[in-house]
Amino acid sequence: MRIIVVGAGVAGLAAAARMGGAANDVVVLERGSAAGGAALSWGGPCTLTLPAVLRDLFVKTGGRKASGGGALEDNVSLVPVDPVRRFVFADGTSLALPNTARGATKDAFDAAFGDGAGAAWLGLLDHGNRAWSAIRPTLVEVPDASRAELWRLYRSGSGRRAIAARRTLRQVGAACGIRDPRMLAVLDEYALGAGSDPRFAPAVLATRPYIEHAFGAWRVVGGVPELARAMYERCVARGVAFRFGAEAASISSGSVTLASGEQLTADVVVAAVDAQVLRRLTGEQPASASKTAATAGYSPSLLSLRLEASADLELPHESVFFGDPGRAATDARLDALFPASASASASASASGTHRVPADPTLRVHAAPEQPRELVVQVDVPCALPDEAAHGYVPTLVELVGQRLGLSPEVTLTLRETITPADRERATGVPGGSVNGPAITSVGSAILRSPTVQPIKGLLHVGASSRPGPGLAFAALSAWNAAEVLRPTRV
Ligand SMILES: Cc1cc2nc3c(=O)[nH]c(=O)nc-3n(C[C@H](O)[C@H](O)[C@H](O)COP(=O)(O)OP(=O)(O)OC[C@H]3O[C@@H](n4cnc5c(N)ncnc54)[C@H](O)[C@@H]3O)c2cc1C
């Protein structure tokens, strides 16, 4: 079978590796000059959850023996992180989140927020467990699951309770006893990490803290570009051909036309690009749609700073520094990030102006191999113009120094800035949005853009397709697509 994969991000690489081999003739078309996509555009440390998805990919495409290409751990150095991350609050409280241990997790929450906090968090994880057990076999790992499967789940009492479709993540958290605004900020982080406004995030996103807790959090030594390299090499070993600088201009059934005018044909086209890019390529959405309209309802982007300290720093793998946890300050932060949200100021969204959060949450990543290097991620609105992003940077650098509590003799030097516009240039994702369409419901969290598209022979994989954003889910979407092509299913 001849297969064209459009896009060489993690999802495209995972799909190409799975579909490559003797049976198929696979070519990957990538508009950029290297494989990795978004994973390259944030140049650094990552937190990997559900490593089983990538382990399965490497075993199924090369076997466990080094002679066959080897398992994931033969190709990248994967290290469990403990703590998973440290949450630091404006009042000086901090919470070091342990990796997987239930008892230690309860103790850590009690120590940070007082007795009962640990039990409340475990209650939320249990809800996440029930939701994951309900959706995994019915919606997540079913390649062509649709609304019909979701309705079937709603119709069973246990399914309805597990998904809690009418409730938000915050409401489920409150029912479990999460009321401290600092704990709420921790919960909100899991909604934001999926591209959802925490005020409206559906309860099913409790699966995210559950997955992290149950299956652990890991880092790739050398950062996520190492993972992209290993996946690319696996593809090449499987006979997959790559064409870089090859931008698809349109996709139709069994054919891809490049920007150069060249036309390529195939039995199957796997679009491993953002859902909005796919709609443009298939002609479903007018290319002339204004950027404001096209990006409304899209998840925020990230502003990334690479900083170098003048002295070695001892920092955990990931630290999250929160600003004021009060209701008004939190709403102001979220209004800035989600201009399309109902509660956002009408004038801000109507005029299309972009505001940056005045009191942002900073996510600081560090790796012990490079004790002077920091990568800082800050949520910013999708499509934030470059001018506004660069204007924001000096404030952020100062804030990083303050929140890290650096002594005056330690200085931070800015080495690199990656803006939403840079992300858009690197990946083609409109506005540089990181997680595709903002998640507002169970359907938008899991069903998203379907694997099997209405156009014959067209499959969609990636962070904006099913089952959701992030490295593991992007790779899982490729498993879904490969399942569709299994001879027993066609
Ligand atoms: C700053 C940052 C930090 C993150 N941190 C984490 C983390 O810690 N843990 C985690 O799990 N996830 C993290 N993520 C999310 C994760 O990186 C993404 O979900 C994942 O990499 C998306 O992969 P993808 O293959 O779906 O899309 P992409 O990586 O966007 O790949 C799409 C590819 O398609 C190409 N393309 C686009 N249009 C065309 C076209 N017309 N023709 C040909 N090629 C085209 C693009 O150039 C790109 O290479 C982070 C993301 C960012 C930006």
TrEMBL record:
Recorded superkingdom: Bacteria
Record-annotated Amine oxidase domain positions: 205-293
Transmembrane segments: none
GO molecular function terms listed in the Swiss-Prot or TrEMBL record: oxidoreductase activity
Listed Gene3D superfamilies: FAD/NAD(P)-binding domain (3.50.50.60)
InterPro entries in the cross-refs: Amino_oxidase (IPR002937), FAD/NAD-bd_sf (IPR036188)
Pfam families for the chain: Amino_oxidase (PF01593), NAD_binding_8 (PF13450)
UniProt xrefs under PANTHER family: PHYTOENE DESATURASE
Protein name per its UniProtKB record: NAD(P)/FAD-dependent oxidoreductase
